Amino acid sequence: MSDRAVTLGQFVLQQERMHPEASGQFTSLLLDVALAAKMINKAVIRAGLVDVLGATGTTNVQGEKVQKLDVFAHETIMRVLGSTGQLAVIASEEDEDIVQVTDGMPIGRYVVNFDPLDGSSNIDANVNIGTIFSILPRLTRTGRGTHEDVLQAGRRQLCAGYVLYGSSTMLVYTTGDGVHGFTYEPSIGEFLLSHPNIKTPKRGRIYSANEGNYAHWSEGVKRYVDWLKCDDAETGRPYSARYVGSLVADFHRNLLYGGIYMYPGDKKNPNGKLRLLYEAAPLAFVAEQAGGAASDGTRRIMDLAPAALHQRTPLFIGSPENVAEAQSFVQEKHAGVTSDRRTR
Question: Global pTM?
Answer without folding.
Answer: 0.90
